[in-house]
Records
---
Amino acid sequence: MAVLRAEGIEKGFHRGLPPRRRRIEVLRGASLEVGRGELVGLVGENGSGKSTLMKIVVGLLERDAGTIERAGKLGYCPQTPLLWEKLTVAEHFELFSRAYELGPAEASSATESLLSELQFERYRDYRIEDLSGGTRQKLNLALALMHSPDLLLLDEPYSGFDWETYLRFWEMSERRRDDGMGILIVSHLISERDRLDRIYELREGRCQET
Amino acid sequence: MNGRAWTATRMGFREQLRRPLLLVLLVAVPFLFISWSIAITEPTPRLITLPGGQQLLTTMKELHGAVMVPITVGFLAGLIGLFVVRSALESDRRLVLAGFSPGEAIAPRLVVLLTATLVVLAVSLAVMAISFAPASWAPFVAGNLLAGLIYGAIGALAGATIGRLGGAYLMFFLPMMDIGVAQNPMFFDGAPQGWAAALPGYGPTRVLIDSAFSQSFDATGPLLVALAWLLVLSAAVIVLLRRSLSGR
Amino acid sequence: MIAIAISGADFLREHLRARMTLAMLVVLPALFVLVSASVLGEFAKALGGSVADDSASALGAGWAAAFLAGALGFFQVASSREADRRLALAGMGAGRVAVARISASILLGLFVSAVAFGTLWLVAGIAHPAHAFVAILIFALIYIGIGTLVGSFISEPLEGSLTVAFIFLIDAFSGPGMSGGGGIAQLMPTRKAADVLIAAGAGQSSPAGDWIAVGLTTLGALLLAAGAFWFSARPRSA
């Protein structure tokens, strides 16, 4: 059963001023599917449109054509952590627990468990401006997982991770996949291909399953 | 206010309160700028025309005292609106994706902007009051508040549409040229020229000039103009921010 | 080094590629020069000074260039801090990074001055164009220095813009012709540049002493700015 089905997605951008204004077609009918309990990779060269497709699926960008069907709760971990510099890690968890409508007990349990799983408990009361890039990314990922989504969208989620955290990230992902979460991950490390159940390659604006 | 909006509002205030330099500047800039401007102005006689047509003889020093408040409040509120909204749009879309409605994400930011405007207004009025007391306080405060809210809204619109550099230019030059020059009875023949009525600072400035120098209130027309500007700009801000946060 | 100077041009391109920013950069100085031409004389009188209409327009162009340059200088530093540090560590060294950044800043100053000067020429005409352009450029370079210095200590855009604006306002209000000229006015960074610009507006030359003072102030501002860039890019503990 699919938690995400995207079909025929088209997206172009205008560049330049008239009379040299031109349209760049990034996606030309891209289609992909993610089932429950699947870990699916989206790969492609730099500039192939992976992040564009991800943003369209999430709802950050409007598509020019095509359909998207999503089932259940969505969790999104953007490539750049979009965080509030002056707020602490704990305050971010509080804000997102409100967004996800988690009750106090549920929010507290999710917060403690993610802080422990990603091993950044000691940064709980640190402001984002005082955190390293890797720790920010841990928070970025944790915020996407707080509400146990049915579909998790990860746009290069491990930049800045040390080796141990990187391995832990894959353990976490595989565990959640086994529990039934559908996960779509933008990746361009060849060594990760064996960890993925299926891989889509985005080339010339279209997805091909490899 | 519902739980989500209330949490976001608390966090919005915490963010700003953790910027000590900003807090210092919000007090120091109005204090130094207004007190120093009044101190260096000569008490040269000046004939001005109030709304309603009455002519009044006052001094450049008193006029400068009255007009420095809306200039200061306008440009500070404008810059705050610009940068608060810019940084909010970069991060708050994630909250919307996570479940906040656009309104629940926008309202806290506007509350922060309103509060900052009120702080600047209070400091500016307090500094002005050392050297100058308006004839009628309530409409004087209202006029200045309107100037702050109108320019805060313009700043918010600029934050949602223009880059930070262009926005900083706009929110500095526009209040200076509008309230500081076009509406300023220190210049021209003591009243704004015809074209100045088309600018956002017209209504608030006429209201506060009237109440600065006259016990009776004769600026109903300009007050309505100011309220109309505020209504239209506020609606534009809300519409634009909702669209930006809902996805593009 | 050339690459970094060109990166200043890249920075300019990056910010000015936003059409609205470019529009502001052209429209606002034009309006400011137009508006200030009509009222600066009266304003100066109110503050105990005096300035003729021709000089008022020229002064307006100088101030427009100053604020534009100050904000540009601030945002340049605020956006390049991390990159400069990396470049210095990669082998260029903090000193060379600083020199290259100053070259980029001068490029920016030239651009901003050209806009303000062009506006002045078109809107009001100018009796002594060569002197006026140099004086406007000096306003811009001094404020590039001020903006850079602010940017090396303050990274937040609101606080930085406010600080630049505040310094600018105090400077402008206490400039020659605007105030009685005593006290704090003597210490203001654009004091001598304003004297030269007022003279150029009136079609007069300025004495050599004024030019030397202006040159020294500009050099000082650029050295301060270079120091600020070096401070930002320098290696931390060994």
---
Amino acid sequence: MRFAVVAFGGSNCDYDTTHVLSDVIGVDCDRVWYKDGLKRSYDAVILPGGFSYGDYLRAGAIAARTPIMNQVKDHAEKGGLVLGICNGAQICAESGLIPGVFTINAYPKFICKPALLRVETTESPFTNQFRPHEVIHIPIAHMEGRYVPPEKKDDIQVAFRFCDKDGNLAPEANPNGSHENITGVLGGAAQNVLAMMPHPERASEEILGSTDGRRIFESMIHNIQDRSD
Amino acid sequence: MQYTADITISLRRGMLDPEANAIGHALQNLGFNVDSVVTAQQFTLTFEAASPDEAREQAEKMCLRLLANPVIHQYTIGVRE
């Protein structure tokens, strides 16, 4: 089993994510510079957080059009797992890997704080280690994280929504004004793509206050192991 | 022949424009009686094309491929020599 974390110019969570996978969880994980392309086969590709290309034009817009993203899209089309975190989620949206966009917050400032999420499905490759409607702690750090769906909203598959401590989808619990509190969107034929604004790699060790994020990576590992059985 | 395309990209009607709202509040705080603000991005591109129609077609492709995101944006294109 092997993971790739793709670093673009301006990515800044690539080492954190690689650290969690390699050192905390202990899976084989390569940090791949985008210009080098994906040269080995991978079970999962992670697009980490950061500010690729300085968020010029729109967050994720330019990274989404780099050649390595054609490889990432091929990987997703073949059923491979793709996880986009924060800027990676914006890149997934700009690449068409999930429907909709993540755009500037309703109150247009950078928000960096803990967040509560409600798990909306436990069937996906990214959420099989959670309980249905479990409320989890994973922090956010973004200015362009407000989810806007496409006009045709029927086929949006939601993994996570912002909620309060009781799991209610109150407007006050929606820090960036996302449509229906959505902050994790699934894509791909087998829900094998997840784009999420919160940072699971920042909630994967006890010392950081939450290990809920780690269960997203563990869900992916569980899904990959299931495939090889 | 060298053509210039003036491309204006703005949010589609009904889309929330948080920056425009913040700018509107700031103008009101300065004493200007502003009812609404709309923001847009303007791109001025020069490139070779065989005809104005081809230049427009190229500009349209640039909008679709990169400059605009159709989920939230609309755009207008003006072509000049």
